[in-house]
Specification:
The radius of gyration is 41 Å and the shape is rod-shaped. With 425 residues, the chain is of the alpha+beta class. The protein is built from 14 helices and 5 strands. Helix content is 64%, strand content 9%. Helix 4 runs antiparallel to helix 5 (119-129).
């Protein structure tokens, strides 16, 4: 309902409750209906008043003047409520307006049996402006008043005198309830559509972000596996040639210069690879990134522990271990129903191991590997990352016994020769 006009009943010309101050406390508040439906209610009520006044004048009824006056009063009260903003915003004002309409209508019933017709539009106004239980009670009182007004002007009581107002009230209540149910269903559909649109936008953004990260990882891996490894090999070969030449050989200065150039370019390549690492690794070591990951997991309590003397790992190794940890923890949160989980990063002399253990309900690894279970692509993707770097990926689990995921990556020989241990975060 708007400030310009009262609500119209639902149905053909019957709108129910738009959100008013009276209805906001309930779950049945409805939005304003179209102008056409509002005009239908205006036209219905004013048309019935004009018909009642016209019949009284045309039939030269003894109280024709009183009938016309009562119709005019009722139309004036109705128009005043339509134009009064307080009626549409205050429950008290709406109830007062309905009481005024009821009083004016009772005066019309006293002087003309045609006032019975006005009960039908009043039903919808009462159901709209009042809460459901009060609206139904008001409809019942209005129907009884209509029946009493008709009997006061008729010498014989007929079934139609009772059935007409009662059926009209029942139809009004059923129409309003039906409209409210349709409105709630429409709102649920609208919310689902909005959620779908938002989800699609989030999915598109996530896919773009995943594509960017995947390309960064691919470039870092390619640079590390080709350019950086080639420069490292060139440096080793030049160093071997430098040791093989006799002291004072004319080629030694050139070899030393070439070795220094290879060293500088190798350092530059490694800086470029580090610049392409995932954001989680840009501001610290792998251990620090895993610790932050554990702290941000919703649901189960996740603990991170570090074993051995940490060392700087090649970027593809750090990326692979971080992604495997993220995927494994995602499985713990979504599927394991675990209360606790633990991630352990272990540095050994020639390898690095990552273990993710949880106390969830577990699963059958053979069923997941064969695709007969409900698993997705998480485990195959983790296995592929590990095997791409020559590592070993294992999963130990059983229904009701939790899950343990372990990945071991052997460190390349040239990395072992040129990296030193670093301090733990």
């Amino acid at each position: 309902m708007t400030a310009a006009a009262p609500p119209v009943p639902p149905g053909a010309c019957a709108p129910p409750a738009a959100p008013t101050a009276t209805a906001t406390a309930t779950a049945r508040t409805l939005t304003p209906v179209s102008k056409v439906l509002k005009l239908c209610l205006h036209a219905l009520l004013l048309g019935l008043l004009a018909l009642a006044a016209g019949r009284a004048v045309a039939d030269s009824a003894p109280r024709a003047g009183w009938v016309v006056a009562a119709c005019a009063l009722l139309a004036a009260v109705y128009a005043a409520g339509v134009r009064a903003p307080a009626v549409h915003s205050s429950p008290r004002a709406g109830a007062v307006w309905l009481a005024g309409l009821g009083a004016a209508w009772a005066g019309l019933l006293l002087v003309s049996p045609d006032g019975l017709w006005i009960a039908f539009p009043l039903y919808f106004l009462e159901l709209h402006l009042l809460r459901l239980r009060w609206g139904v009670a008001a409809v019942a009182v209005t129907a009884c008043a209509a029946i009493g007004g008709f009997l006061a002007h008729s010498s014989a009581a007929t079934p139609g005198a009772f059935l007409g107002p009662l059926l009209g009230g029942a139809v009004a209540v059923a129409t309003v309830l039906g409209y409210q149910a349709l409105y709630r269903e429409s709102e649920r559909r609208r919310e689902l559509i909005e959620e779908l649109i938002t989800t699609r936008a989030d999915l598109a953004a996530a896919e773009r972000s995943a594509g960017i990260l995947a390309e960064r990882e691919r470039l870092a891996r390619e640079i590390h596996d080709t350019l950086a490894q080639g420069l490292s090999s060139i440096q080793l070969l030049l160093r071997a040639a430098e040791r093989a030449l006799p002291e004072g050989a004319p080629a030694l200065p050139h070899i030393a210069q070439a070795r220094e150039a290879a060293q500088d370019n190798l350092a530059e390549a490694r800086r470029f690879v580090r610049a392409l690492t995932p954001p989680d690794l840009e501001h610290g070591s792998l251990a620090a990134a895993l610790e932050r990951l554990c702290a941000g997991v919703p649901g189960p309590r996740v603990r991170f522990s570090l074993s051995g003397r940490p060392r700087v790992l090649p970027t593809p190794y750090e990326v692979a271990l971080l992604r495997i940890a993220q995927s494994a923890l995602a499985n713990v949160v979504r599927h394991a129903r675990a209360g606790r989980a633990e991630i352990t990063l272990t540095f050994m002399d020639a390898s690095v191991t990552l273990d993710i253990v949880d106390d969830g309900h577990g699963f059958d690894p053979a069923s997941a590997a064969s695709g007969s279970g409900d698993g997705g692509f998480g485990l195959p993707a983790m296995r592929s990352r590990a095997e791409t770097l020559g590592g070993l990926f294992t999963v130990e689990s059983a229904p009701g016994q939790g899950t343990a995921v372990a990945v071991t990556l052997p460190l390349p020989l040239e990395h072992l020769e040129h990296t030193d241990p670093v301090e733990a975060p």
